[in-house]
């Protein structure tokens, strides 16, 4: 499974890139707003930090297809490199996705809560579909089940789209999604650290140091 960082915090991205295998960064307007800067400034800072080869998913804000297409062009021109226009799966969003794919854009369909939303976005040519696991779990639905179904449907209809599961709050959600066959997840850097943490690992490392330090004067 491939890991993306779901943040606009450049310091956190820098730290995580230094430690962990990461394929790219995803943002949304809420994440951008937390940086308290214009979106262009924030995404340029992220691009400088991650370089041109890592994937950068940036969401559009417009509600009409024409605005979504126009914004996608402005965002892509600002950051260049491996860029994905992230677009919510409204009817206008689906229209914009089809137009952007014809123009050669890479597209991520986002704000996905149902299997059919994902299937329609995949048919519209989306490179990634992003189902929101925690937001589904929070309304007594099953985020994992929706992800599993989307993986099955994409496989059954032999579509090129990949699943980029999003909206996570704990390690178990990420683990269950990794069993589903989804190709990737996007997570906050703090949650990435939690994926690695186990108290027995910490304890074992301390024991090794205590036992071995006399014999490891390398
Ligand atoms: C990422 O692409 C999504 O926008 C994000 O994961 C949503 O996460 P949240 O439900 O924690 O806001």
The biggest sheet amounts to: 8 strands, parallel, barrel
Low-confidence stretches: none
**Topology as H/E string?**
EHEHHEHEHEHEHHEHEHH
Strand order within the widest sheet?
1-2-3-4-5-6-7-8
Q: Helical segment tally? A: 11
Rough shape? globular
Bound molecules: erythose-4-phosphate
- Let me know the number of strands: 8
Percentage of β-strand residues = 15-25%
Radius of gyration: 19 Å
- N→C terminal distance: 36 Å
Q: Helix/strand-derived class?
A: alpha/beta
Fraction of helical residues: 40-55%
Mean pLDDT metric: 98
Structural summary, described in words:
This protein has an eight-stranded parallel beta barrel with strand order 1-2-3-4-5-6-7-8, surrounded by seven helices. Helix 5 links the parallel strand 4 and strand 5. 53% of the residues lie in helices and 18% in strands. With 218 residues, it is an alpha/beta fold. The mean pLDDT is 98. It binds erythose-4-phosphate. Erythose-4-phosphate binds at residues 6, 26, 28, 110, 130, 132, 134-135, 166-167, 186.
